[in-house]
Amino acid sequence: MTTDVHTELVPGTYTIDPARSACRLTATHVFGLKPVAATMSLRGGTVTVAADPVASTASAMLEAQTFKSDDVRRDSDIKGKRFLDAERHPVIGFRSTRFHRDASGWRLTGVLRVRGHDSEVTLALETAEPSAGGCHFVATGVVDRVEAGVRTGRAIIARPVRITLDVYASASAA
């Protein structure tokens, strides 16, 4: 795990490469019988690494229609009107509002927009390292799906959804 963002990364603005990046989601049935793992594709976004790390920012967009688990019926339900309403809200967005360090490491706090509803979420930065032509970041956190605007499905899925963003970003052209 890279802990010193300031010395490891070259300051600048980096563009997320959707083809190399991934979002993984994990939740459990309310009864806790089986974990549910799913993925979603990133549409894009940017990461700005500032010379002073606390001034760094990030934004990302996920494609709601790309939700995919091991159950086609579940996927259809999650993308449907009761949950993500992907037809009317095709993008799930995140924009950072604060980057800070605490005793456990770097944290990225921001606004998550799901179904037109904004909620605050904090992600733990697990990895921030240079990669070929840019940077590689891994951030994890837990989203309370009800606070994020997905209020239905109490008997289907628990409230906390663990999210892992594995992002590769390339240096943006000046």
From TrEMBL:
Signal peptide: none annotated. It comes from the Bacteria. This is Polyisoprenoid-binding protein YceI. InterPro entries: Lipid/polyisoprenoid-bd_YceI (IPR007372), TTHA0802/YceI-like_sf (IPR036761). Belongs to the UPF0312 family. Residues 13-170 form the Lipid/polyisoprenoid-binding YceI-like domain. It holds the Pfam family YceI.
